[in-house]
Design a protein that fits this description.
CATH topology of the largest domain: Growth Hormone, Chain: A
Radius of gyration: 24 Å
Order of helices and strands: HHHHHHHHHHHHH
CATH class of the largest domain: Mainly Alpha
CATH architecture of the largest domain: Up-down Bundle
Number of helices: 13
Number of domains: 2
Strand content: under 5%
Length: about 325
């Protein structure tokens, strides 16, 4: 885990990023432009081949061209992260829209369809590489990259799978004529969402985030049992992040709202979030010359296999810190 002393003043931690709209705006744009757009494209390929009268050999050539172009997307991704990332991503979205139109337009000649494949491959490859790289460039540490890249790829797989069903339902309801709109619309919306993301992204000083909540002592066994009550685990995670921020502030902690939303939309984030809670408590204890409470790895594994135990262990750590601070209110 990254410690507070190792954090550079201008470096974003993974918690800074996940607690900001900049991260989620990039993620949503990625899902719309890559996952949804690709789902529509893949569902339409058999129909496109039949409608355009493309032979098996020509179709195979088109697929090869797309794969090769996707690999060359590295070049555009490099330019995107070195120049103006937000502007570059919008430009890549425009390239993908142009490529999709060339593919699906009824009167497009064969050479133009090949050009469409090239544009789709280049833009998809570039966006797929650039978004995780832009996020990774905002902070230091392997843990931060793992969290950021894991969120992007996990969401991409899930949304792509669900989108395939949705695209198929649209084709059943409205016919193949709707496919160009189904493919292009998400890319356009994703580009518009980028307009809401600050141009500096993860450079410079991270903004202030989060807030502290009044720490409360709770019986660890009671916390563990309450985890079996629907939604209590989410409530406790929200409270725990605010309370630990009060007694052991750290930029490796999510904001309470960020912890709640992350656990709802990206379940594996709750594992990292709980480990970061004990990490912050350990750091505070070590500052006072006391031994650390628990290993973050131990908490991560308990959170994965049996979350109530992880919650009880963390609550026990909060209680110990409150006991050392008699001025804190207790319940």
């Amino acid at each position: 885990m990254t410690t507070e002393t190792n954090e550079q003043p201008g470096a974003w931690t993974w918690a800074d990023q996940v607690s900001s709209w900049r991260f989620w705006g990039l993620l949503i744009s990625y899902l719309l432009a890559v996952s949804l757009g690709n789902a529509a494209l893949n569902m339409a390929l058999p129909f496109l081949r039949k409608a355009a009268g493309i032979s098996t050999a020509q179709y195979g050539s088109m697929v090869s061209v797309r794969v090769i172009a996707t690999g060359f997307g590295f070049c555009l991704a490099w330019i995107a992260i070195k120049w103006r990332p937000v502007v570059s991503l919008m430009f890549l979205a425009v390239l993908k829209v142009c490529g999709l139109i060339l593919l699906f337009h009824g009167a497009t000649p064969l050479w133009a369809r090949f050009a469409g494949w090239v544009l789709v491959g280049l833009s998809t490859g570039a966006i797929s590489l650039a978004v995780p790289a832009i996020i990774a460039g905002g902070r230091c540490g392997a843990e931060a990259f793992l969290v950021a890249f894991g969120v992007v790829t996990t969401f991409g797989v899930i949304v792509g799978s669900v989108a395939s069903y949705g695209v198929g339902a649209c084709i059943d309801a409205w016919g193949m004529g709707c496919i160009v709109y189904v493919a292009v619309a998400p890319v356009v919306v994703g580009a518009l969402i980028l307009l809401t993301v600050r141009a500096e992204l993860f450079t410079g000083q991270p903004p202030d985030r989060g807030y502290a909540l009044t720490p409360l002592k709770r019986e660890p066994i009671t916390v563990a049992l309450l985890f079996f009550v629907p939604f209590y685990g989410l409530y406790w995670l929200y409270r725990a992040h605010g309370e630990v921020s009060a007694v052991a502030p750290s930029r490796t902690l999510l904001s309470p709202r960020g912890a709640l939303l992350g656990a709802i939309f990206v379940p594996f984030l709750s594992l990292v979030a709980m480990a970061s809670l004990i990490d912050a408590l350990n750091r505070k204890r070590q500052e006072r010359g006391r031994p650390r409470l628990r290993s973050p790895v131990e908490i991560f594994l308990w959170a994965f296999f049996f979350t109530p135990v992880a919650g009880a262990l963390i609550q026990s750590g909060i209680n110990e810190l409150l006991t050392e601070q008699p001025e804190q209110p207790a319940q």
